[in-house]
TrEMBL record:
Residues 1-23 form the signal peptide. Residues 271-296 are annotated as: Disordered. This is Uncharacterized protein. Residues 271-282 have a biased composition (Low complexity). Residues 284-296 have a biased composition (Basic and acidic residues). Keywords: Coiled coil, Signal. The lineage of its organism: Eukaryota, Sar, Stramenopiles, Oomycota, Peronosporomycetes. The keyword Coiled coil applies. It comes from Phytophthora infestans (strain T30-4). Residues 38-146 form a coiled coil.
Length: 322
């Protein structure tokens, strides 16, 4: 009993130590597990954060690349628009230039056709004159071979006059004095065959060239005259139209006034109104008086028009100058 009492405190301490020895390892293991879990969680959190940062960087890189690409495309679109505007303006200017060149080409084609036609006519005249010249040369050679110098000279003189008269009539009718001078010069030349043929050939060539030059000058003069006549005709037509309009306006005004006056009531005495209005002589006199008054009013109305007076004065001045 006494031993039990002495050993009781020791047993209590031992029980406490035993319980502590049983509970302390569990707490220690639990704390260690908590530390391990916390360490693993932090490691996982760090890895997740790294993955998130990497994904964020990747998404930022793609967005910036798309933004840069969109800006580049916008600049390319602006440049393309400016280029399209420049090309459009250039196309319009080239279209106008093309139209101008087409009209110029058409006018040049018309002039060329006209000159070709004139050249064909001149060539035809040249061929006909050359054939006539060859015939006359053959006749001249035959006459020279026949041995009649005087008759040959007279015949040569008459045929030369006929040749150059036909040439002047077919090509240029205003150069008869040159024909007579050429025929007289050919008549006064010696009767040598070689010299005559050479001089006639050179004279004919020179004369053809002179005829062509005169035809060209005559064509230019006729064109200028035609242009002047057209402008004068347009001016005359315009003046004539204005004069007709002024006269028609005056006539209509006078007729309107006469109609207005005729519609007014007549104020006459009652005892003489029936006799005067019923008499045919009074009607004829009123008609004659109305026509004369109408003419007088028309003349006065026309003289009041300054435009009519200006047209008449310009017309009279033009005729006096002509």
């Amino acid at each position: 009993m006494h031993r039990w009492i002495v050993c009781a405190p020791c047993i209590g301490v031992f029980s406490i130590v035993w319980t502590k020895c049983r509970t302390e390892p569990a707490k220690f293991c639990k704390a260690k597990q908590e530390k391990d879990l916390l360490r693993a969680f932090r490691a996982r959190l760090y890895s997740v954060q790294e993955e998130l940062e990497s994904e964020k960087n990747k998404t930022d890189d793609g967005a910036s690349a798309w933004i840069e690409k969109s800006k580049q495309l916008e600049t390319e679109v602006e440049w393309t628009k400016e280029l399209a505007d420049r090309l459009d303006r250039l196309n319009q200017s080239l279209t106008r230039e093309n139209q101008r060149l087409k009209t110029q080409f058409s006018t040049q084609e018309n002039d060329r056709e006209f000159l070709v036609k004139q050249l064909v006519t001149v060539k035809k005249d040249n061929v006909s004159l050359r054939t006539e010249l060859e015939g006359l040369r053959q006749q001249l050679d035959q006459l020279r071979e026949s041995g009649q110098p005087q008759q040959q000279q007279n015949h040569h003189h008459s045929q030369s006059q006929a040749l150059f008269a036909t040439a002047s009539a077919s090509s240029l009718p205003k150069v008869h004095y040159r024909d007579s001078a050429t025929s007289l010069a050919m008549a006064q030349r010696p009767n040598t065959a070689g010299v005559t043929t050479l001089t006639m050939a050179s004279d004919s060539d020179n004369r053809y060239k002179e005829i062509i030059k005169r035809l060209k000058r005559l064509l230019e003069v006729e064109r200028r005259n035609l242009q002047q006549v057209r402008t004068a005709y347009k001016l005359e037509l315009q003046n004539h139209t204005e004069l007709e309009m002024v006269i028609k306006e005056c006539v209509q005004d006078i007729r309107g006034e006469i109609v207005h006056v005729s519609q007014l009531p007549l104020v006459m005495p009652s005892h003489s109104s029936g006799s005067l209005l019923g008499s045919p002589q009074h009607g004829r006199q009123s008609e004659r008086r109305m026509s004369s008054s109408e003419r007088q009013r028309l003349v006065e109305k026309l003289l009041e028009k300054e435009q009519l007076l200006n047209l008449l004065t310009t017309k009279a001045d033009g005729r006096e100058r002509q």
